[in-house]
Amino acid sequence: GMAPGTGTPEPGGMTSRELLESVRRICLELPIVGIDIVEVAPAFDSADITAILANRVVLEALSAIAKRRSGEAYSPAQNLLDR
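The chain above was modelled as a monomer; its predicted structure follows.
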């Protein structure tokens, strides 16, 4: 996985890109109203990779929820934060 700053790191798993795309699509296509980020332990990640990724997950989720609620058309290849 791509998140070393957690209490229980596991090998393998999703890449950061796969995680962000999954969060984006889920929040665009389903009536998600909130999310919860857990197991971010900055003490185990001196480069802050996990905290930065968690921040990006929240931003992608909120952007996708806002986009869905606005009714604007969306292309799955479009990065919501790069507008």
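Residues 1-83 form one domain.
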